[in-house]
Amino acid sequence: EKLGVPVIDADLISRQLVQPGQPALQAIQQVFGDQILTAEGALDRPKLRSLIFADAEQRHILENILHPLVHHTIEQRILAQRDHPYVLVVIPLLLESQQDYQWDRLLVVDCPPALQRQRLIARDHSSPEQVEQILAAQTQREQRLAMADDVIENNDSLEKLQQTVKRLHQHFLALARA
């Protein structure tokens, strides 16, 4: 984004779709009950996370509610950015979503599994058991890397990461021109 590239983030879209009063939240509430709401009527993310990662069937039900809505919103936002050389669409669980996305390239941001676990615990305040459930629901690292057109290794300093992103940005600009 700092380089002027439009970034469409599926997680942010998903969060917008489940705000109080939104149809997606109402659909989720109908399926999972009031237990997944806070006292204020917002989605209780930790409660829903523990529910869906403990039961694959429940996770698939949630995905069937949210993924088509997220997919549609992404498509609309891409169309709105047609005048840019390229757009980045950030979908953490792209390979797991089973949505029919059509991309020119697949970029994977990767790090060693131990670092991934540390980051999940720090970000979500998840227990080690929950982290293992989350990782078990994801496509295996080797498969993600094999499918990638481009890979960013995110296991070093922020400065090195920024240099890698700038190089990749120039590469993407060249591909867009071609």
Give the SSE layout.
Elements: E1 7-9, H1 10-17, H2 23-32, H3 45-54, H4 56-80, E2 88-90, H5 94-97, E3 107-110, H6 113-124, H7 128-136, H8 141-147, E4 150-153, H9 158-177
Parallel strand pairs: 1-2, 3-4
Condensed summary:
The protein has 178 residues and is mainly α. The protein has nine helices and four strands. It has helices spanning 10-17, 23-32, 45-54, 56-80, 94-97, 113-124, 128-136, 141-147, 158-177; strands spanning 7-9, 88-90, 107-110, 150-153.
DSSP summary: helix tally: 9
Number of strands: 4
| Multimerization state | single chain
Report low-confidence residues grouped into runs of 5 or more: none
Major sheet: arrangement of strands: 1-2
| Main sheet properties | 2 strands, parallel
Elements, N to C (H/E)? EHHHHEHEHHHEH
Work out the radius of gyration. 18 Å
Percent of sequence in beta strands: 5-15%
Q: Structural class of the helices, strands and pairings?
A: mainly alpha
Overall average residue pLDDT:
91
* Helix content bin: 55-70%
* Distance from first to last alpha carbon: 22 Å
Large-scale geometry: globular
Describe it.
About 60% of the residues lie in helices and about 10% in strands. The radius of gyration is 18 Å and the shape is globular. It is mainly alpha-helical and about 180 residues long. The relative contact order is 0.13.
Features:
mainly alpha, 178 residues, single chain, globular, 59% helix
